[in-house]
Description:
The protein contains ten helices and seven strands. By secondary structure, the protein is of the alpha/beta class. A seven-stranded mixed sheet has the order 1-3-2-4-5-6-7, sandwiched between helices. The protein has helices spanning 3-7, 71-84, 96-107, 136-148, 150-162, 169-179, 183-195, 222-231, 248-251, 253-265, and strands at 11-13, 18-23, 44-48, 89-94, 112-118, 209-216, 236-244. It has a domain at 3-122 and 198-265: 3-Layer(aba) Sandwich (Rossmann fold). The chain is globular. Helix 4 (136-148) crosses helix 5 and helix 5 (150-162) packs antiparallel against helix 6. Helix 3 (96-107) links the parallel strand 4 and strand 5 (112-118).
Amino acid sequence: xxxxxxxxxxxxxxxxxxxxxxxxxxxxxxxxxxxxxxxxxxxxxxxxxxxxxxxxxxxxxxxxxxxxxxxxxxxxxxxxxxxxxxxxxxxxxxxxxxxxxxxxxxxxxxxxxxxxxxxxxxxxxxxxxxxxxxxxxxxxxxxxxxxxxxxxxxxxxxxxxxxxxxxxxxxxxxxxxxxxxxxxxxxxxxxxxxxxxxxxxxxxxxxxxxxxxxxxxxxxxxxxxxxxxxxxxxxxxxxxxxxxxxxxxxxxxxxxxxxxxxxxxxxxxxxx
Length: 272
């Protein structure tokens, strides 16, 4: 195993000829895909990894300057692809990683046959002509909560983001992976994510995009998925699932896993 693979806990399972890359979002690690992986291993070569900053990675490797922009994660993704000598893949990115995949596909479109974007947003902050879901004051309060008492913040943030029953397995699982992050890293990463604005690069995307969005998501309103579809340069399709929360692959696998499998297996038809 190479240095990059080891740093990101890269794991390869399955025996298919086509590769599927699963990339997780903020506060989680590769375990967030545990309900999907068993459905893929008989048909695909599945590549999982942990983003730097996840609780499963070495915090000494986290560079606050490098990860102050999404590009830091793009460089990591491309380094993993290079070390694995990966020439083409179906990329499934959740939240932060959806936009990492979008950005990587602009400079290296040949590496991606399609992008499947789960709970994706190019901008979380509201603007005069754009609704992302958050006001700056709300984000300031979120950051202050993380600074003042990270454990208490996790206890409140996890059920709010996952949605549904406070005692659900999904809430407990997200609470665990969120709390495993080093607090200063979690804060720095949250500031990177919630303050970024990637709307200006959407028109440069040429790889087909499948956008999967919960009907009720505190972090990403469904209108954001419509904005993505209208502004992406590539052909795209949106599917709103009858689910609640920002991590539907974890909280509603019975609904979302069949949707993901359908989008993995079928391509967007060309407009006639």
